[in-house]
Predict the 3D structure of the following.
Amino acid sequence: MPSDILGSLRALVCDSKTAPAPRVDYGRMTDFSTMPDWVSYQSMQNAFQRDKIFADYYFLPRSGRMEAEIDTPQGRKLLFSGYNYLGLANDPRVVEATQRAVQIYGSHAGAARMVGGEIDAHRELEQELAEFTGHEDAVVCVSGYGANVSVLAYLLGKKDLLVHDNLMHNSGIAGGVQSGARRMAFPHNDYDTLERILAEHRDHADRVIILVEGSYSMDGDIADLPRLLEIKRRWGCWLMVDEAHSIGTLGETGRGLAEHWSLPSSGIDIVMGTLSKSFSSCGGFICGGKPMIALLRTYAPGLLLYSTGISPANTAAALAALRVLKAEPERVARLQENSRMFCVEARDRGMDIGDAAGLAPIVPVIIGHDMKGLRVASRLFEQGVLAHPILYPVVPRDSSRIRFFITAMHEPAQIHHTLDLLQKELAD
C-alpha cells in the first residue's frame, strides 16, 4: 500500500480519537415541548388570552343528557354541536335496552369477536343494519374512523388506485395511505375531473375505489349518486360512500343517500356508517354484498380480527335506536324541516352557508379568518349558544366556519333566536 494512503489512514484514525463527533442531543429530540405542534399550540393559547376569547368549549364537559339544551360549568347552553341528530340517545326504549344488555352480558364483549367476543346481539344488529340499508350483509366494529381505515387498507394494495373527493374525511385518506395504493383527489363534487382522472389512469390500476361522503361533514352538501353510479359502471370501479352523517338523516325514512335519490342501494358497493350519530351509540359498520362482508369479517385487521367486539351496551343502544327510527320516521322529517328552516333563514339574513341545502343535519356559517371565527363563536357562547368553530387546517385557510348540527330536538324558536344573535355578531 502506498505510503501516502497509509499516512492518510493514520491521520484519520488519530483525528477520530482526538476529535470525536459531537454527540446528538437525544434529550431534546425526546422533549415533546420542542415539537412544532407544541409551539403552535402555545401560540394559539396566547392569542386566546390576548383577545379574551373563550376556547374551553373544545373540551367542555356537560352534566346530564345531550338534548337541545345542556348544562355546562359555564351555565345552561343551547346546543348546536351534538351528534344526537334524532334525539334517540334519550329515548326511554333505548336507555332501557342498554341497561338490560349490561345485566345480561356484562359491560364487555370479552375478546375479539373471532375468538370469544361474539354475542348474539352483534349479529342481530348487523342483520338489521343490512336490511335497513338495503344490502346483503353488514359487519359492526368499535370505530367509524377505524372502519374506513381498515376496509381501504384491506381491499387496496400497491397496484390499485383510490380516487377521492378532496373534502373526504381524514379517515378515508388515512385508509388510503395505509393501503399503499396510489391516491388521487378530485375537486369537491367535480365529477368531470373524476372522469378525466379515470380516463388517464384506470388502465394502469388493477382495482379502483371511488370514495365520497354521502353528506359532507364540514359543508352539509351531498354527493350526486346518479352521476357517480354512471361513472363507476363505465370505468369498472367500486363505489364507497361514507354515510356517517347521512344514514338516519337523508331520505324519507333515513335510509341514506340511495333513498334520497330514489335509487337501489345495491349500486353502492361499500357503505360505511357510524353508530355514534343517528343510532345514539358508538362504533362503525360496513354494509355490502355477502362475499365482501365475509372477507372483511375474517381478514380485515382493524375490524374483528385484532379488535375487541363492540360492547353489549353500545350494541343494544344502536339496535334499539334503529328499531325506533324504523317505527318513527317522522323524526327524520322533523330534522330535515329544521335544517331547511335554518338554511333559508340564514341566507335571508345574508349569511354564507356555502352549498348546504337543508337536506342534512350540518349547516356551516362561513366566517373567513380563523380569529374572526373564534371571536364570533366565543360571543355566541357568552350569550348561551354552543356551536363550535372549525378552523384551518380542518378547512381551507380563510374559510373558518361555525358548524351547526341541526337536530330533530330543536324548536323553531331556538333556531330563530340563534340566527338573530349570529346576525348581530357578524354585523358587529
About this structure: The mean pLDDT is 92.
